[in-house]
Queue: 4 jobs
Job 1
Amino acid sequence: MIDFKHVKKYYPNGTVALDGVDLHIDDGEFVFIVGHSGAGKTTMTKLLLREEAVSSGTLIVGSYNLSKIKNRDIPYYRRELGVVFQDFRLFPNKTVYENVAFAMQVVGTPRSMIKRRVPAILSTVNLADKIKCFPRELSGGEQQRVALARALANNPKIIVADEPTGNIDPKMSIEIMNLLMKINKLGKTVIVVTHEKNLVDYYKQRVVMLKDGQIIEDRVGGMFA
Amino acid sequence: MRKHYSLRYFTKLAMTGLWRNGVMSVASVAVLMSCLVVLGCFALLLVNINVNLENVAQLNQIVAFCEYDLDEETITNLEAQIADLDYVDSVTRVTKEEALQEMQEQSSEYAGLYEGITDENNPLSDSFEITYEGTDETQVYDLEAQLRSMEGIRKINSVYQVAKTLDNLKNGIMLVFLWFLIILFIVSIFVIINTIKLAVYSRRSEISVMRYVGATNWFITLPFILEGVLIGVFASLIGFGVETYIYNYVENMALSDLEMITILSYGKIALPLFFGFLVVGIITGIIGSVTSLRKYLKS
């Protein structure tokens, strides 16, 4: 469960990035966050990842109140999330297996469990045959699927995808979106931040539209107006 | 869930970091090593000055020189007067003939200098070697004043004054070295900070992914702190080697040329010096790393 209550976010230069946002997302929902540049999408993502703290209001994600969370608890909160970025952020000198395993290593997962789990996750994203490849040997869509596998590595409850199709061709974009839908069907909450109208319109999921830091539309089965 | 981190994993990351920023790593080790060598020289110099000071102070001796051409009776009287003074333990007369002989023996390689000097034209005077009880400063000064005021005494040489001069010299050296050391340590901490910052910069994308997948601060920062520790360890090991060479060189030189100076054997001080280097090196390394990682430790 994600709950934004009158969330405001100001930056030190005076910019009001979010201006009294109220938003409730239930467990297992699939939500598009849409809007043009400067609408507040990135800030919303940063607040969810707890890269930034809210200026006022309350933001609750699962059992964590991000308005009051202590610094030492942030890493444990982030383990509840899986993040996918537009630029993939893979390690070029690590294989597909190592890139996914890395996310598990840093949270102290036993090696035996990593050995069992990584191939299973790579099968979920249809990359079982690329396990020994390096990112440079993969297409953009495949690299994004590795990033998705890494996001799933620690079995998070929520997946936040920030412009996941921004760097890949339309055919691959559909593939990535289908995977995100599949992950959602497995019971995970999926939040996709995007400005790609066609994709949003095609999938007909809940759409939250931002403009000037405020929600101007929130509709299930909505379109990118 | 039980955590499965290994020191090997962190050490490997730290070594990779050092290797990637080779020039800065070498610079950090070199500066910290120089710092430790100076610190070592300073410490060893002080230890040796203290040993020599103790030796000098333990002599408790004043030498009083008689006026020239005093007759035998006056000198004998003087000896008796001195022996009666407060705090005096013993008085030994050294005749000018004995003094000349001793001087000739001590400087046998310059025998030519003493050619033509005989007991008849001996330029020296008789003297008394006086030992006293206790080392209380006022007592020694009191005794020195009484000796100076005695008729027939030309001058006095007090090892107490030599000891005081050496002590002042030691304090002066300490002050100069202390400032020098502070500056060197600040420089080496800055160089280490830069090295670690470069290491952090070269791994920034890795760090950002670590943070997003929920790595704790200590997991992210430990390899960098270890990098600082490794810089400290390398600097102290090399520094100890350099210090050993310097000390042995000085010891050999001092033993052959300056026999009056006591030099402590290196075997006695090597172990404390080694651990001192290691501790100071590692602490400096950690201070450097932690300072450059403050930003990461906070957020």
Job 2
Amino acid sequence: MSTAPRQTGTVSPFGLGTGPSGRHPAVEVRDLVKRYPKAPVDSVAGVSFDVGRGEVFGFLGPNGAGKSTTIGILTTRIRPTGGQAVVAGVDVVADPVGARRVLGVVPQQNNLDRSLSVRQNLLFHASYHGIPRARRNELADALLEQFGLDDRPEGRPDDFSGGQIQRMMIARALMHAPSVLFLDEPSTGLDPAARLFLWEKVAELKAAGTTVVITTHDMDEAAELSDRVAIIDHGTVLALDTPTNLVRGMSGERTLDCTVEPDPDGDAGSLGMALGGLAGVRMVDQLDGPTGSGWRFRIDVEGVAAAYVAPVAHLVDEAGARLTDVRLGEPNLEDVFIHLTGRALR
Amino acid sequence: MSPDSAVEEVGVPPGARLPDWGPWRTGVAILRRDLFVTGREFPIFLAQVILQPLFLLFVFGKVLTELGYARPGYQEVLFPGLVALAAVLTGLQSTALPLVIEFSYSNEIEDRLLAPLPVGAVAVEKVVFAAMRGFVAAAVMFPIGVWILGSIPWQASTGVAVVVMMVLGSMLGAAMGLILGTYVPPHRINVTFALVLTPLIFTGCSQYPWPSLDHLRWFQVVSALNPMTYVSEGLRGLMVPYVPHIATWLCFVVGLAYLVVLMVIGMVGFKRRALN
């Protein structure tokens, strides 16, 4: 629940960014539109952005925001309704075959060849891309080692864990040395260790100069990995900048995360409204907490957050509930998203 | 090798690719993958394609004839029809089932759709590969025929034409499978197979010559609509020309026309599934 109206007026300070100056962009997208047949609205509604060479570019948004559709267009699997998309200098609509030579894709779902071993998956992928035999053997061995898959190279994909599958798909995508690597929701369903390993690998790729475009609905992931982040919702880029600048755009704002033990007869909505009515409070969001932990509110305030603890406690008391926990926080990317859209990421 | 060195290697701009690499070579590489996988399981593949025609040949060609329920000479009518059946059915099953699975459950086809060749070429490769399987299944009928029936009708003078007709039959089956595999939703594939395969098998003139249906006019018309009829009749005309049959040239022309139409429909279906 949000007591604040949808605030679109805050988009302007961020504006649309461009890649690092003086370098030819790895990805150029102009006014991209996609409307699926019979859909009432555009899934991608006029998106424009550039990704610089060697940049890690994050797409942050909730499910259904248009991230995967945009990636689908850039990777030639979805035909746009309008606009232009160029990857490594190749127009993906006019020359999809040429574009597929220069891009690599790691999809959300396992699409490894189950009839082939791990190593054969890498080798055959390279053969589709015309990598000579000696070179692809060499490259497969190196990538299997680098991704920690060299202990069972002859195993079938079905015998591996989700994290290992993810690594295999990245290793496979790297076999043809793509100029731009697309990772669609790479850490969905991964355990924390596998996620950290993935983050490490993306950092290594970046260090080696590979351009990476990554979609996520996880703000930690976006903040950790990306040089710049595009926040996308309803098919539109709401903001685009470095994570630091996006958060700095929330200047003057602090947050209070409050946990409240509810009054059995009380109503979280009316308490939220009351909190929103406090002077200096910009927005109140009710968050989903762990089951049985009571109500959780995130309160965006102006000025010093600590100054609001007493008035908030007072209001909670008045509502017959009890304040059990307060955390004062700096804003993060999720707050930026909430600020832009009026709702939480998940 | 240090952990970073592979990344560094990979990070360099693509230059490792063969300079003259074109889409057709990618198509051949994909075909090589299919041949590799089938080759590894060749005995299983053979068992899969041989069993049904083997039993049909044994029961209809041997048992019924020896028991006196079928006239002597029926074997000669039956054999070309069963070669056609093996070609068409194996071709069909080799595209339909893999496509349904690869487009829905396994997504395996994505890596090929993301390879540097036109999307339609991936469909063509599927059909070519399925036709190869269909052709092998049809070719294997010859030694089996000799083994079960003692001898098979065969004329050296029409050998090349027989091979061409077997290729055409396999392609027709593969093209029908392309349509089934791309238009039928995954949860309907079982019922569709039952509804399509049985009529296809029994209206394709594999067990009887088409002209002999003169007295069963409606069934003759239905059979004339089945592409397999022209493969059965074509092979009959080439292998047992003394049995009444549809003119061989007409079988080639209608078979080719069907192939073009089925491929166009199948390619449209494939592109609809492959691209959004």
Job 3
Amino acid sequence: MTVENKTNQLTSKVEGNVLVLERTFNAPRELVFKAFSEEEHLKRWWAPGGWTMSIKQFEFRPEGVWHYCMKCTDENQEYFGHESWGRAVFHEIVAPEKIKSVDAFSDAEGNVSEELPQTQVTLTFISEGNQTKLINRAEYASADDVKTVLDMGMLEGVTMTWNQLEELLKEMK
Amino acid sequence: MGEKLTTLHALAEPNRFHIVELLRVGPLTVGEIADSLKLRQPQVSKHLRVLSDSGLVEVQPIANRRIYKLQSQPFLELEEWLDTFRSIWEDRFDRLDDYLKEMK
């Protein structure tokens, strides 16, 4: 069963315990792939506005590690001074078509968080003339309560509830 | 995070998950839940206690019956939390879109 949501140009759907996000970019596939595969480019767009991105390790190859930190440097934001460390391991790279990785939260030393869920992410780049369709498939990878519940179809249930809520709100207007 | 973990932990047990699914349709008594799921009544009562302790269901005594119904708050919180993943990528894609213009 599939539940779809459309906001702006982003399509999101839930297939079992997998969250699928799709978006089309006005740029050729090689360029979009480059934005994901080179440190100097990633730095420029990965972190939210007001957060600076520093990359401690970036090995863009199978079994290579990408260890980075996003720090909030905007004093007007709630999270000013807050650091968020992430650590991903690339598993499969097919330039310029596919990047498969397992993403986790970590600390400054690169120790992966046991409490927060890990996600297995597959990025697929599809060439459509001068445009590129990017598909992001995310699946919870760690064996914890989050995964158990999502495997039982919770995400689908939740998304359905959300759609129903939207319908209800429309009727209420 | 703590409350969400409580919600997730309560739901991670298959019988409790089925009870919640049943209650989505409408409020029920212990006996009705036990019949539908082919479980013994004391077993259902035990699961209902966990669910009500974690705020997922509430009990309404009507005459000499106790009716169990779902509480929406924990589900709304869980949904909000799951939706953050989506919004993180939504914002990230917006920034990538702008950056690709610079790269060209």
Job 4
Amino acid sequence: MNNTMYPIAVIGVIAVVTWVLRAFPFLLFGNRPLPKVIRYLGKALPPAIMTVLVIYCLRDISFGQSPFGIPELAACALVVILQVVRKNMYLSIIAGTVCYMILIRVM
Amino acid sequence: MKELRFAVKNTIPIFFTYLFIGIAFGILMSDAGYSVLLTTASSFFIFAGSMQLVMVPMMTSGASLLSLAVMAFFVNARHIFYGIGFIDKFRKMGWRYPYMILTLTDETYSVLCSVKYDEGLDEDKAAFLIAMLDHFYWVFGCFIGACAGRFFQFDMRGIEFSATAFFLVVVVNQWRQYRTRLPFLTAAVCALGFYLLLGKEYFLIPTLVSCVAALLFLRKPVEQQEGTADE
């Protein structure tokens, strides 16, 4: 494959794979009425998926070596505390991110 | 346009995340010698940040299309699970239906999961604008990074934590919304278990599969605690 076609083919292949994955549940059920069990999963899965995503975002922490995951854990604690106390999403995210960016530089 | 104002307000955290990660991707692509057009097109069509970042080194080393497809499958397989909660909602959205499905990223998914629509708002229109704005932020960030990456001299290391912070905020809000704690606990136990068992590269998909299995098994207690069994 020549040099101009290769990147275009790469983008096409990745896009199609990603689209098929995103469309999978929709393709599976078409226009049929949803089974009750899928409706149940639609309600019960989101909190589980979001919890998994948070843990997935923190997967690169190494507790064995400096700074022992302290920037991540401290920033996460700040986000949770602010969100519980002040209930202001913007404040929680900005404060947590700034806290993290400072801690990874000073630790 | 109260729907647009609402959508902007609810996607501000995503704006910052996508802008900075998009710029990082744009710089990576331009350093690897790819054109602005190609970078922008890849962001428009693929719209999956982590896969696009993985794509750059694979593309420069001339990896085969098959290996790129397999990589894309494993990096993005989590998206299979996102549609399950939105089948009924998206179906009702007419011509917007395919667009909503194809742009369901981690971030758009979490906004749509947690958003509380105001009284008197056209919900379908607002959801569509949320998806479109997120898509636009991503393409815009990548474009800026590809054109002007070398002018960004300040050190933005750590800005990617804003995505983690956003996901965490969604979990805190869900913790308040849901009466049952079982989905959160199931997810934490499965994720930590598979993380220890398989390591950080491979734990995600087994974790998601086992969450589905465990929640099916726990259907009765979850529905009892949530009070939705008769719905």
